[in-house]
Amino acid sequence: MTRSSAETRARRRFGAVLALPAALLLLMLVIGPSLIALGLSVTDYRLGMDEVQWVGAENYARLIDDTGLRQSIVNTVSFVLVVAPLSVLGGLWVAVLVAGAGRLQGLFQTVFFLPVTATLVAMATAWEVVLHPSFGMLNALLETLGLPAQRFLSDPDLALWTLAAIAVWKMLGYNVLLFLAGMATIDRQLYEAAALDGAEDGWRRFTLVTWPMLAPVTLFVTVITLIRALGEFELVAVLTNGGPDGATEMVIFKLYQEAFRFFDIGAASALAVVFLLAVMVLSLAQVTLAERRK
C-alpha cells in the first residue's frame, strides 16, 4: 500500500467519524420516524390499542373519500398561492430597498427579522389584540376611516386570508436576509460593466445584474417558502383552531386532529406519508433545476 493511498483512507475514515453524529441525528429524527409512519399507515392502529391489524391501502383510500381532507387541501393550496408569491417577491423587493439603505441597513435587517425570532405565544397574543372585533387596533382604524368593523378571525370569508397575511409578515424577514446574503456575493464589477453598457438606473441594474445573479437564491427561497407554507400549523392551532366551520383547517392541522384528537394513528400516518412525498417532490425539483443551471 502506497503512502498516498493510506493517507486517503485515513482522511476518509476521519471524515466518516466527523459525519457520524449528523448521520445518527438524521436517522433518529428524519429517516426513522418516516419509516415508522410508513409502517403505521398500512395498519388500523389507534392510540392505546393492544392489537394492530394490517389494512393495506385502506387508510389511503379513506383519505381520497374524506370530504374534510379535500376542504383542507383546498384551504392549504389557497393559502400557499397567496403566501408564497408575496413572501418571495416581497422579500426580494424589501431586500433591494434595505441593501440601498446605507448605514441604516443593519437597523432595517433587525426590524424585518424580528417576526422570525418572536415566540409563538407572544405573536399570537399580539395579533389577537390587533384583530379583536371589539377593541382591536385594526378595527379602530377602520372605524376612524368610516368603514365597518370586521371579524377577521371568526368570519369564514376572511379568516383564511387573515392567516395568510400574518404568515407573509412572519416569513418576510427570513426571506429578506436570504436575499441580502445572496446580493452580498454579487461581484461589484458586474454593476460597473452594466453601467458602461448604459444601465445606470436602478431598474436596469436590477434586471441585468441583480435578478439573474440571484436566480439560485431565488429558487432556494421559493422552495423553502413553499414547504413552510404547506406545513403551516402554529397559526391555525393558536388563532383559529381550524375554524370557523373548517375555513382555516389545513393539511397539517388535519393530520394533528386525526392523530391527537381522534387517535387514528393509521390514517394520520397515511396523511403524513402523502405530505412527506409532496415535500420530497418540491426538494427534488429544486435540486433538478439547480443542476440544470450549472
Question: What's this entry about, in short?
Answer:
With 294 residues, this protein is mainly alpha-helical. It is 75% helix and 0% strand.
* Number of structural domains: 1
CATH homologous superfamily heading: MetI-like
Strand content: under 5%
CATH topology: MetI-like fold
Poorly predicted ranges: none
The amount of helix comes to over 70%
The level-1 CATH class: Mainly Alpha
| Largest sheet, strands/sense/barrel | none
Radius of gyration: 24 Å
Averaged pLDDT? 86
The count of strands amounts to 0
Annotation field: number of helices: 13
**CATH arch. level architecture:** Orthogonal Bundle
Shape, per Cα inertia axes:
flat
Structural class: mainly alpha
SSE order, one letter for each helix or strand: HHHHHHHHHHHHH
The N- and C-terminal alpha carbons lie at a distance of: 38 Å
Walk me through what this model shows.
- With 294 residues, this protein is mainly α.
- The chain has one domain: MetI-like (MetI-like fold).
- The chain has 13 helices and no strands.
- Helix 4 crosses helix 7.
- The two termini are 38 Å apart.
- The model has no long low-confidence stretch (mean pLDDT 86).
Sequence-ordered SSE layout with sheet pairings:
Blueprint: H1 3-40, H2 58-65, H3 67-99, H4 105-117, H5 120-131, H6 137-144, H7 159-184, H8 188-196, H9 202-213, H10 215-230, H11 234-240, H12 251-260, H13 265-292
Helix pairs in contact: 1-13, 2-13, 3-7, 3-10, 4-7, 5-11, 7-10, 7-11, 10-13, 12-13
